[in-house]
Amino acid sequence: MSMAAQNFKTSIQIQPSFQCHLFPSSLPTIFKIRHKRQSPITLKFHPIKASNHKYITPTKQEEEEDDDGIPIEHIKTLVKFKSRHNYIRVLEVSRRADHPLAGSRLLLLDAPGNIHSISFLFKSITNAYYDVLATLPPILPPGPLGILGFGAGSAAKLILELYPQGVIHGYELDPSVISVGREYLGLSKVEKQYPDRLFIYISNALNASVKDGYSGLIVDLFSKGRLIPELQNPQTWEKLKGKLKKGGKIMVNVGGSCVEPEDSRKDGKMIMEETLMAINKVFEGEVFVLNLGNRKQEDSSVAIVGGLPDLEKWRISLPKPLRFYVDMWNKYGG
């Protein structure tokens, strides 16, 4: 569910009433202007109703930020419908587009259209926060990894390909999300490729359990465009802590300002801070945060819970495209 980074803002004009914004960080070049290295990207989808806002002349900076958009002819809507839990859309970006998402399919959920899964036909690295989540397995004890908020399986696909011994138990509340993932985003192929390593459950992720516990948990739980309220409650983190094996760790997509809730009275940054405070009450001194953006108004973060390992050993254990993330963690409150 999910999805996190930003140094400047790029817009994709999808249809006259919608715009999709991507926020790359200042890390490794995927956008064609104003950057030197290829960057992980975060994405969010803004419904824009022309009748509800006045025309404002854009500043020069805003024009520069928006000049890297994907033309509408390169965007195709494959499916859109409302399920019991979500407003679901799948978009396809043409391979001809001069853009880092060229050739991808995107799963958008919620009214704001936050992007929850990215699927490329010929590669698994997404240059988005899913890549950060995929750095977790090498620092875990033996045992299954639980993904709470499976979405269409972007993180799972990457982890299964990178770590041949990994076993994943994924939990998703909305069966329609899994169905769309199977039909449009390659999940069916992943399931066939790893029948003994990937197990998907349609259930409340917070009730997930396996015998002897999880080696680690990835928590990517959003609803109505925001982190679910339970994650702002320390009791939830006590419960999740009890699901771990000794030495187990949790990695959490905590969102940030780049995540737009359906309720305009809520702020993604505030919800992120409330979530981190709740986590820290249970794992005091063991919470580290990786911020994928450097603009205060457009940040996005991932947290790791359970402390950091030896950084050099962690770095060496990772595939080269993911190693730079190791140096980006900062202690929460430190």
TrEMBL record:
Keywords: Polyamine biosynthesis. SUPFAM superfamilies: S-adenosyl-L-methionine-dependent methyltransferases (SSF53335). InterPro entries: SAM-dependent_MTases_sf (IPR029063). It comes from the Eukaryota. The keyword Chloroplast does not apply. GO terms for biological process: polyamine biosynthetic process. This is S-adenosylmethionine-dependent methyltransferase. It comes from Solanum stoloniferum.
